[in-house]
Structures are given as structure tokens and as C-alpha cells.
Specification:
heterodimer; A: mainly alpha; two-stranded antiparallel ribbon; globular; B: 5-stranded antiparallel beta sheet
Chain lengths: ~260, ~220
């Protein structure tokens, strides 16, 4: 029921967005590759504000402030408390556990993107970590076998199909995204991620999300404030960092067994 | 016979020439950026892990030392130029110099803030890329299970590679500041930007006067 509603929401959002998306494709479509820091063009390129669509900036700024307050007043105190109770290595294990459960989603997405060598890697990681890594609590594949984590999401799949970012969005309690990316995330989590499909109960799913977020945060405490106090316009900085970071995460040299 | 001696002499001269050449080509050929960065990073890690400089009360001294070493390697002029974009050329020499001095103070905090918390860190040099007088050295800061990718973007000045951008997890610090400054310049003015940078630097420097931020990460229980 909830899943269906969410899908409906996605479709409602997606169709009006489609025109914007198709226009934006020319600019955002898989043009990137890794940023070339050695080229002066990287620094003289037009401002990202002119390249990335952010017509909802006023609303996004409100959301950004909301997330910022929630973070400082609720999430961080909770995560700090949590980090005092749960030792560092256990938190690392919980992180790996969730990550392992998401591997099937990544597997499907690599298939959809035609990245078959990555699909194999993910499958290997999933099998090794679920068995030797004891249900994924340890990253045995990475540590013992040197099979490093692979990144893949529905947002990326949509990107590889030539769908542009659309609008930049700051989602309450979630953070920076774009129309395309959040669509992908909703599909990834509600349709495919095991721990969200176990139950249809929104409260349980919410609790899982909050728990995961808290655990994740407890591993990066203090970094947000530290970074923010160096900034002049946190909103602009985080928007820029979101796009820069994503570009780097998604870049990988194309191998022979990828067809694209 | 004479011919033999002659050719030996030519050979010797040639050999001397070639032996001499490596010295002169090494001046013409760019030095290895990683080899230059390694001792620099080692010195910074040495300061951060120096048992005499541990603890909150030593934090000011520790930061001063890191800043001292960092300013030898960083080209703040080049950074400022990029961070201001077109506006840079509209400033006269004095204004440029003033901005450089301000930005230097800001960047020192940004860089130190990023590396300071990781007291048990290890720096792994992953890769390097050289193109003309530019180079990129990729490092990983490894601290227990956390790995943070930090790349240094450098320009060759004389025989020294100087850093003009730091890329943390794919995010260029210079580009990120550039976007923020551009927004301020677009909406307000250079004077207003300058004022904001001045205020920020003062704020950061005052926060150093106070006890440094307590480390929240709990290493003890790991």
C-alpha cells in the first residue's frame, strides 16, 4: 500500500519533470567522467549555479535550514549518545551489515547499466560477506580478497539511460538530491532493498531508516559542524559538494567488458 | 693510432657530456611530485603525532607548527586567483595581496581542520599524474576503518611543486569556495565579500584562542 502510494508520488513528480529532464539531458547527460583538476577549465568553467537547475532554490534553502536544525538538535545528540553506548567497531559492523543487504540492489543496477564486471564483483562480495563475513557484519571481501565496494544506484542507471538530473532538491530528513536521483532512491529502497520490503509498516521502515542514519552518522560525528564553520554560504557549498562528490563516486574507467 | 686516440678522446668527451647531461636534464625535467609531497606529508603527520604536542592544551602550538610547514608548500596566490575568477583581474596589486593574505589564513583552518582530527592516521600515496607544469598527487588518509581520499593539485614553480587546490573525496576546495564567492559577488559586492572573509577569519582565529574542539570520536573504545 505504502509502496504503491510512493510509486504514484514518483510518477506524479516524474511526468511533469520529464520535459525539464529532457532539456537538461544535454547538459547533465553522461558528459562528466572524472573532473580534470589539472585543466584550468575546471576552475574557469561557468558557475555551477548556471549549469545545474535550481529553480526551487528558495524552497530548497528552507529545507536545508530545516535539515540543519534537525541535524544539530536531534540527530547529532542522538548519534553522540549512541556512539557512547555502542563501541566503534560494532558500529562499523552494523554499517557493513546494511551495506551488504543493499548489494542485490547494486547488482541489479549494474546489470541495467551493462557494467557486467562490476555485477560479478558485487555478487562475489555478497556471497563472501554473507558467509565468511557472517551475514555481512564484516567486510571480508574487501579485507581478505581485495574486492572493493562498488557503487551503483537507480539514479545512476537513469543517468546512464540519458535522463538528466532535472531539478536540484533538498529533501527533508534526507538531504541533497535531484529529481532523478530521489526517484531512483525511492525505487531502490521501496522496491528492492530487503530491509524496507520486509514490512509495509511505515513506522518500522521509518525506524530502520532512522537507525541506519544514526549509525552512519555516529561514524562521522563532528565533521558537519567542522566543515560548516568554514563556509560562507553552506547551502551553495553543499550543493556544489553534492555534484562534485557524485561525479567522483560515479567515475570509473570503462573496461572492455562494459558495453556502453 | 692518432685516429684511435682521437676517437677515444671524442668518446671520453661524449661520455663526459652525457654524464653531465643527467644533471642538466633533471633540472629541465620536472621533479617527481610524489617524492616532493612525501616528506611534506610526513612532517605534518610527525607534528600531529608528536607525543610532546598531544592534548588540548598543546593544540595552539600544534596548529601553529602545522601552518608553518603547510605555508611552504601551498601557493595561496594561485589559489586566490582561481577562487575569485574574473574578479581577480579587476583588483589592483595591493588588493590582490590583501586578499591572498586573508585567504591564506582561511585555508590554513580548512586544511588543518581536515587533517587534525586523525591523530592515528596513516597517509598512503596512491597515484600521481603529471601534465606539463601541473600535477595531481592522490593520497588516502587512513584512520582505522575510515579512508578519506585527499588529492593535491600542484603547479611547478622553479623546481618545487606547489599546491593550489586540495580535493577531499572528489570535492575541490577551491571550486567549492569559488561557487560561494561567486554567489556573494553576484548578489552583493567585492567589498561585502571581503568583509565576510575578514569576519570569518577573525571568528576562526578567535576559536583557536579558546580550547580547541574536543575530539568527539571515541578511539579509546575501539
Amino acid at each position: 500500500m505504502i509502496r504503491r502510494a510512493a510509486f504514484l508520488l514518483v510518477i506524479i513528480f516524474f511526468i511533469p519533470g520529464a520535459t525539464v529532464l529532457s532539456q537538461a539531458t544535454a547538459v547533465f547527460g553522461r558528459s562528466g567522467g572524472q573532473a580534470d583538476f589539472l585543466s584550468d577549465e575546471f576552475y574557469s568553467a561557468e558557475a555551477e549555479s548556471e549549469l545545474f537547475n535550481d529553480p526551487l532554490e528558495p524552497m530548497n534553502r528552507v529545507m536545508f535550514t530545516f535539515n540543519d536544525r534537525v541535524y544539530i538538535w536531534v540527530m547529532e545528540p542522538v548519534a553522540t549518545l549512541y556512539s557512547e553506548v555502542v563501541p566503534w567497531d560494532i558500529r562499523g559492523c552494523i554499517n557493513s551489515f546494511f551495506r551488504n543487504l543493499e548489494e542485490p540492489v547494486r547488482f541489479i543496477n549494474t546489470l541495467l547499466q551493462g557494467r557486467f564486471s562490476d555485477s560479478v564483483k558485487i555478487l562475489e562480495r555478497f556471497v563472501i560477506n554473507s558467509t565468511l563475513g557472517v551475514y555481512g557484519f564484516a567486510d571480508a571481501a574487501g579485507r581478505e580478497f581485495g574486492i572493493n565496494p562498488v557503487h551503483a544506484s537507480m539514479g545512476e542507471t537513469l543517468e546512464s539511460w540519458g535522463i538528466g538530473d532535472g531539478l536540484y532538491l533538498v529533501i527533508p530528513l534526507y538531504g541533497a538530491s535531484t529529481l532523478r536521483e530521489i526517484t531512483g532512491t525511492v525505487v531502490d529502497s521501496l522496491e528492492m532493498t530487503p530491509y524496507y520490503t520486509w514490512t509495509d509498516d511505515l513506522a518500522v521502515n521509518g525506524a530502520i531508516f532512522a537507525g541506519k542514519k544514526t549509525n552512519d552518522l555516529s561514524l562521522h560525528l563532528g565533521q558537519y559542524e567542522e566543515w560548516k564553520q568554514l563556509l560562507f554560504d553552506p547551502y551553495i557549498s553543499f550543493r556544489n559538494a553534492y555534484f562534485q562528490y557524485r561525479r567522483q563516486v560515479r567515475y570509473r574507467p570503462v573496461t572492455d567488458d562494459d558495453f556502453r | 693510432m692518432d685516429r684511435g686516440i682521437f676517437s677515444v678522446m671524442i668518446l671520453a668527451a661524449g661520455m663526459m657530456f652525457f654524464i653531465g647531461v643527467p644533471g642538466s636534464t633533471s633540472a629541465a625535467q620536472p621533479p617527481d611530485p610524489t617524492e616532493q609531497m612525501r616528506p611534506f606529508v610526513d612532517r605534518i603527520v610527525a607534528i600531529l603525532t608528536d607525543p610532546d604536542l598531544q592534548g588540548e592544551e598543546k593544540c595552539i602550538k600544534r596548529r601553529e607548527k602545522v601552518m608553518e610547514v603547510a605555508s611552504e608548500r601551498f601557493d595561496f596566490h594561485e589559489m586566490s586567483k582561481r577562487v575569485l575568477g574574473r574578479t581577480w583581474n579587476t583588483l589592483d596589486k595591493d588588493d590582490q595581496d590583501y586578499f591572498v593574505s586573508l585567504f591564506k589564513r582561511l585555508l590554513e583552518h580548512a586544511y588543518i581542520g581536515k587533517i587534525e582530527d586523525y591523530s592515528e592516521q596513516k597517509v598512503v600515496f596512491r597515484d600521481q599524474r603529471v601534465r606539463g607544469d601541473r600535477a595531481q598527487v592522490d593520497t588516502d588518509i587512513v584512520d582505522q576503518d575510515l579512508v578519506i581520499a585527499v588529492s593535491y593539485i600542484m603547479l611547478l614553480e622553479g623546481d618545487m611543486w606547489k599546491v593550489y587546490d586540495i580535493v577531499v573525496e572528489g570535492v575541490s576546495l577551491v571550486r567549492n569556495y569559488m561557487e560561494q564567492f561567486k554567489e556573494i559577488l553576484r548578489k552583493e559586492s567585492y567589498a561585502s565579500l571581503l568583509k565576510q572573509v575578514e569576519d570569518k577569519v577573525t571568528e576562526l582565529e578567535q576559536s583557536i584562542g579558546k580550547p580547541c574542539p574536543v575530539e568527539i570520536r571515541d578511539k579509546a573504545d575501539a
